[in-house]
Structure formats: structure tokens, C-alpha cells
């Protein structure tokens, strides 16, 4: 994602790259970013000093890990930079910490930066609101074999949308990873299933099923560049907004 973001920024006439971060000890730190990426020299060195980099930025694009994202949220708030978060696997405590940072700066956080996925989220909420618990809901997602968290952040986002549509808390109805003699499906549960294999970019399907009929809402990502473009759109959108914790539906004008 980092390299895709760099390429998209460099191709834009509205954006300028002022810094690139890697974790301490990474072999790119101190090297020219362009050369490290296997291209031409860019005159910008990769750094492990987030505070210094953020002080020069109007926006920070963050696809990292939960611990790093929480730390970055505080630094971005200090710099009053828009913090666009695509990191997944965040805990409730992590999100609470990000909420605190959002009191002082703009945070745009989404389990998926795809505009299409976020439209799908809105549709899932509407369909769930229209159908009662006689319709079973299952969220099925597929990703490449390197992905470390399951269900994906997008799957959880879709599950949250379905739960909101039904007026229930996802934590109370979530059903994950069935195995063995599990008994009959509990009425009103929202099921999750994760597939991992090969180089699958990202596929998400929400199934609404009742005896005699099914509704399937699905999004397929075939190019990771779409996530970079969505994140950069969010960074531009946030420039004139007041402090707060926003999502991609806000960026789309659907929040």
C-alpha cells in the first residue's frame, strides 16, 4: 500500500509527498525513497521519525498496525494533520484512543478505503433494516494468504452495518468460525467466514437468506490501487473539516 500511495501522490497535480516513514531498523530508513522502491532518485529520504515527518504534513495516510496507528493518532493530532487510517485489527481500546485524538484533529477511519465498498456498506444497512430476523445474514470475505487478521476490517464494517440496520449490537449477535457439531443456527445471528489464499486482493459478500430466496450483495477488488485513491480522496476531503472521527461515508456525502 505504501508504494501505491507514493505512486498515486507523485502522479497527482493536487498532492505533494513530504515524508515517508518506516519502522525503526527497517533497511529502507535513511535511503532515498525512489531508489528504495527500485526507481529513480526522488530526493526524499525514508525516515523513522514520525514526529518530524508529521510536523511538515497536512495529511498522514496510515496503513500500518494497531499499535503504530494509536501512536500516530496522537502525533497527527499535535500536528493538526488530517489522519487517514486504513489500519485494520484495531481493538475497542485502540479506537477509544483514536477518538481522543479526534477531539483535536480530523481523523478519517475506515475498514476499507474503497468507495465501492463503502456504498456496499450503506446498502447492507438498508437491506438489513428492511428484513426481519427470519432472514439469516452471513458475511463472507476472501483475501491473500499474507493477511494476518480475520475477519477482515471490511467484513466487520459490513457486519456492523447489518447490525445497525437491525438495531442490535454486533457483539451480541456475531457468530464466527463454525466447526464441529455446532447445533442449529441461532435466529438473528450475523455469521462471519474468512477465506485466505493466493493473491486475492479482496472479495466481500453479504448473504441474506430465508427459506425460498436469497439476496447477495458483493464487492470484488481486483487492483489495490483503488484503496490508495480512496485514502487520498479522504485526505483532500478532510482539509477544511473540523476535528472529529469521520468515515468514508462522510467523504462520500452519505454520512
UniProtKB/TrEMBL annotation:
Enzyme class: oxidoreductase
Signal peptide segment: none
Keyword annotations of the record: Amino-acid biosynthesis, Cytoplasm, Diaminopimelate biosynthesis, Lysine biosynthesis, NAD, NADP, Oxidoreductase
Location of this chain's protein in the cell: Cytoplasm
Family according to the record: Belongs to the DapB family.
Catalytic reactions of this protein: (S)-2,3,4,5-tetrahydrodipicolinate + NADP(+) + H2O = (2S,4S)-4-hydroxy-2,3,4,5-tetrahydrodipicolinate + NADPH + H(+); (S)-2,3,4,5-tetrahydrodipicolinate + NAD(+) + H2O = (2S,4S)-4-hydroxy-2,3,4,5-tetrahydrodipicolinate + NADH + H(+)
Active site positions: 143 (proton donor/acceptor), 147 (proton donor)
Entry's Gene Ontology molecular function annotations: 4-hydroxy-tetrahydrodipicolinate reductase; NAD binding; NADP binding; oxidoreductase activity, acting on CH or CH2 groups, NAD or NADP as acceptor
Listed name of the protein: 4-hydroxy-tetrahydrodipicolinate reductase
Dihydrodipicolinate reductase C-terminal domain location: 116-252
Gene Ontology terms describing biological process: diaminopimelate biosynthetic process; lysine biosynthetic process via diaminopimelate
Residues at which NAD(+) binds: 86-88, 110-113
Location (main, coarse): cytoplasm
An example Gene Ontology CC term for this record: cytosol
Pfam family, one: DapB_C
EC code: 1.17.1.8
Sequence positions that bind NADP(+): 45
Organism of derivation: Sagittula stellata (strain ATCC 700073 / DSM 11524 / E-37)
Origin: domain of life: Bacteria
Alphabetized SUPFAM superfamilies for the sequence: Glyceraldehyde-3-phosphate dehydrogenase-like, C-terminal domain, NAD(P)-binding Rossmann-fold domains
Keyword NAD set for record: yes
Domain Dihydrodipicolinate reductase N-terminal: 1-113
Pathway: Amino-acid biosynthesis; L-lysine biosynthesis via DAP pathway; (S)-tetrahydrodipicolinate from L-aspartate: step 4/4
Positions contributing to (S)-2,3,4,5-tetrahydrodipicolinate binding: 144, 153-154
Subunit comment: Homotetramer.
Function: Catalyzes the conversion of 4-hydroxy-tetrahydrodipicolinate (HTPA) to tetrahydrodipicolinate.
Amino acid at each position: 500500500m505504501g508504494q501505491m500511495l507514493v505512486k498515486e501522490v507523485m502522479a497527482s497535480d493536487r498532492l505533494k509527498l513530504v515524508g515517508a516513514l518506516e519502522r525503526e531498523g527497517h533497511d529502507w530508513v535513511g535511503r532515498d525513497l525512489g531508489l528504495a522502491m527500485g526507481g529513480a532518485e526522488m530526493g526524499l529520504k525514508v525516515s523513522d521519525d514520525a514526529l518530524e515527518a508529521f510536523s511538515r504534513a497536512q495529511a498522514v495516510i496510515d496503513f500500518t498496525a494497531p499499535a503504530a496507528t494509536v501512536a500516530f493518532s496522537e502525533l497527527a493530532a499535535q500536528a493538526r494533520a488530517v489522519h487517514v487510517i486504513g489500519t485494520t485489527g484495531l481493538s475497542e481500546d485502540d479506537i477509544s484512543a483514536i477518538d481522543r485524538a479526534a477531539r483535536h484533529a480530523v481523523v478519517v477511519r475506515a475498514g476499507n478505503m474503497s468507495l465501492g465498498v463503502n456504498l456496499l456498506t450503506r446498502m447492507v444497512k438498508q437491506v438489513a433494516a428492511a428484513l426481519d430476523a427470519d432472514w439469516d445474514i452471513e458475511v463472507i470475505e476472501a483475501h491473500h494468504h499474507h493477511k494476518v487478521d480475520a475477519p477482515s476490517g471490511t467484513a466487520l464494517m459490513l457486519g456492523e452495518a447489518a447490525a445497525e440496520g437491525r438495531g442490535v449490537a454486533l457483539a451480541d449477535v456475531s457468530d464466527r468460525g463454525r466447526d464441529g457439531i455446532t447445533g442449529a443456527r441461532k435466529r438473528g445471528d450475523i455469521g462471519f467466514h474468512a477465506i485466505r489464499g493466493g493473491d486475492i486482493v479482496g472479495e466481500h459478500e453479504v448473504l441474506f437468506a430465508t427459506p425460498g430466496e436469497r439476496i447477495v450483495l458483493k464487492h470484488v477488488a481486483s487492483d489495490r490501487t483503488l484503496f490508495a485513491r480512496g485514502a487520498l480522496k479522504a485526505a483532500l476531503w478532510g482539509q477544511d473539516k473540523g476535528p472529529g472521527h469521520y468515515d468514508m461515508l462522510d467523504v462520500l456525502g452519505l454520512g
